[in-house]
Request: fold
Amino acid sequence: MDVVATAGHVDHGKSTLVRALTGMEPDRWAEERKRGLTIDLGFAWTTLPSGRELAFVDVPGHERFLANMLAGVGPAPVVCFVIAADKGWQAQSSDHRDAITALGITRGIVVITRADLAPDSVAATSAQVRAQLRGTPLENAPTIAVSATTGEGIDELVHQLDEVLAETPAPDASARLRLWVDRGFSITGAGTVVTGTLTAGTLHRDQRLQLVGETSPRTVTVRGLQSRNSSVGTVTPTARVAVNLRDVPADDVHRGAALITPGTWPVVHVIDVRRSMGEDLDSGVRQLMLHIGTAAVQVHVRPFDADHARLTLEHALPLQVTDRLVLRNPGSRNVFAGAIVLDVDPPELDRRGAGARRTAELTGRPETGDIRAEVARRGAVERERLSGFGLAVPEALPEDVVEPVAGWLVHRPTLETWTAAARIFVTKTLAAQPLIAGVPEKAVAEELRRTRPPLPSATSGGEAARPVADLVSVVIAASGLEIVKGMARPPGHSANLGPAEAGVAEVERRLAANPFAAPEADDLRELGLGVRELAVAEGAGRLLRLGDGVVVSPRTPAQAMRLLAGLDQPFTTSEARKALGTTRRVVIPLLEHLDSRGWTRRIDNIRREVVR
Reply:
């Protein structure tokens, strides 16, 4: 299905044209039909002679309903711009033109309606329209004069619709989903239903989605789908679709909410934008209405200059770089400005001169985003996160951006800063604490989070998110250090036992003579071996600490297994104690250690067996 939205001044025949093309009544409310005035969005559909399925979103043309008009045009890829031959260009014609321009809709048809009422004015109206559309996306749109009453020009309009739609790029059915909701209601026996125009991604039954709106985001499930009043299992773009949802009451869903693929969209309160048309952003207006898709959200404007500003949204929306917005002054019924989103995760402006620096950054930024700037500002960022921002990561990365571990893009100068910081931190720590075998990776990560820019503290949370630990390991390796048992150290480094060396050597001598005669606690104290010294010796692979303060040689478990394997199976703890020639103080933690290694297996409270 293709979707086309109407546009144009009130009482210029938009709804009449839709009726003539589809045979359906787009006005849904009795009041609209009684007054002959479209107030809210209307919907109708048809099949063109070519077989192409076409749905219309009919919008109100009165100035009081500009917000409704924007909700209808916002998600539409193609517009049908309507001007009456007997009335010519009028005020809301300009507003709708400006809205279309701000939204970046580049495909459309200009329809001169009521050609039968003013045949002598068609040429002049067409010239007037061409002049008004000069410099806009519809400047070269085909123009057709029609009469919905007599049928004049309708066949040619249908032909032109087919051609324009055939030339419109096909939407991506595999893309992440963002369906802007234009209606939400309840149906007895079915529950909550929302409708919208699907422009990318695919919907299917039992799909789990995230509902984002004025309330906190929530997870919902697709119970059923309809398109053109028929139940379907899957809907691909472009299409008008009704989605029956589980897990949400109808009162919680309003126009302007969005159904999105979970974990793929940044849902943001603050964005940086560039003016694309209209009034200067530093004109003194601080409160505006932001329109995108079907959403209308109040925003606070912090201008950087005439063309760039930071917008703080009253409630969060799923947005991406390159999104086009309409900004409207709440005290006016006209379009204030159009804007394009440059950054959906802008930096805080918490230092002197930050505003001026940000202005310079945004001035030189392309509208499609700047991968290098995004990576440089953060030091490192996941590919998945950049994709979520709406940025395309090129195969050939910028010269100073590297991917040292799959999924992480790192600013080369920052990587050099981090590797130097890791090397210095580990070296100083080992010099100050000679007894330790190395510095825990977590401690190195915490140190790197104190650098500028800091090491990321968490991943974006998407399904393909990479652990920060992967990045820490790469930084440590790049700094010339090695990781052994979660500890970073220079290659070949071993703990310096210092005064404890003699005590450890004596324990080793005793255990070599009798591996199961673990020294008593008093013996260890006399040898100057406390918890810290024993931990260092164990880290160096010279001793093994079992439970209950029992210390043996790292070779003792294997020596015990050779003796236990010669016993009748299964064996008791007492039989094991006698075979090893030791005490219960030693044999119980030793057997528990063997159990944990999977070398022995407990059968009941008193018996074990060797695992063959």
